[in-house]
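lol ok so funny story. i was supposed to be doing the assay writeup but got distracted and ended up predicting the structure for this chain instead. priorities right. anyway since i did it might as well share w the group, maybe its usefull for someone
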Amino acid sequence: MNIAYVCTEKLPSPAIKGGAIQVMIDGIAPFIARSHKLTIFSVADPLLPSEETVENIHYIRFPKMTYEADVARALATNRFDVVHVFNRPAPLASYQTAAPHSAFVLSLHNDMFSPLKITPTEAERALMACTRLTAVSEYIKRTVTGRYPVDPQKINVIYSGVDLDQYVPVWTEEGARIRQSLREEHGLVDKKVILFIGRLSKTKGPHVLIHSLPSLLTRHPEAVLVITGGKWFSDNSRNEYIDWLHQLAAPLGDHVIFTNYIPHFHIPKLLLMADVFVCSSQWHEPLARVHYEAMAAGIPVVTTNRGGNAEIVRHGQTGIVIDDYTNKQAFAEAISYMLEQKEHAERMAKTARKLVETHFQFKHVASRLEAVYAEALAIHKSQTSSL
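and the output, tada:
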């Protein structure tokens, strides 16, 4: 098949500035390009050329200001069998008008059919324009089927994944060596490290973790909370919320460490210095990809029962899921359990790693998407031949 990927206008592809969607595309694209012709449309970036071919993947990048119009023109002048639009339903109808010869697949990585993001008219046009949809979790699928009379069979849930070649489990000899080196580098050799990775926003909840720390320190005085992330992916500038986080952390001294944004390619090693990874999301998380990453590294996971998180983090089996997600004491108790019940924590971590090995590698994601593309193309051909 001749396939086009239409990335969002927020961040460039490849993921030189991070982004969950961009990281996923980087992971699946090589597998798709083995059997199909693949073109990736992306927003322009000063660090990248406007057009290039890398390892059989053709990249075309357009300015942010004219991105949608430029993509539509490019789709009109090329005969793609399948166009996969990532997380942007609003312009999909105009893309389909420009390229009626193509089958369209829309993947949803957030609640993009929220009335705050799209009008009912735009939503209905988008649903009509795409042949198939995919969602990163059952939760995200329900955000569509709960609002619009769309056939649930039209939406495939395709979970994300990781490149396991990049993830060395912490219990291996190499994993232990990397862990020791990083802990020495950060002055954490004898500490119990609680790791947060994510954007520094109220919806991600790092403030709840800071609030939980005084109680945690009464039982684990050697605990250190490491907060990794910036205001917006690679943006380390400050805002009112981040200033507040630093104010909250100040009385706790060196028990809280802010690393700022760390490029994604460092995350597999960074995870290895943790004793427990915590996702403190306060919003309905679609299903944060950092869960897959922590599970791949073999780090015990604590998360919140928000959105799609609990679909892969199974309470007591592959991690701990917190229902009372605003309660600082609930986090203190969950983290303490992981630090104290080490045998169970390790057993959950090993079960989680096995789950990733079996179901959540990028090769699995690519294979599932290929099946969706083939089905979408067959349906599109059937529909157009009957006209």
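The chain has a mean pLDDT of 96. The chain has 13 helices and 14 strands.
back to the writeup now i swear
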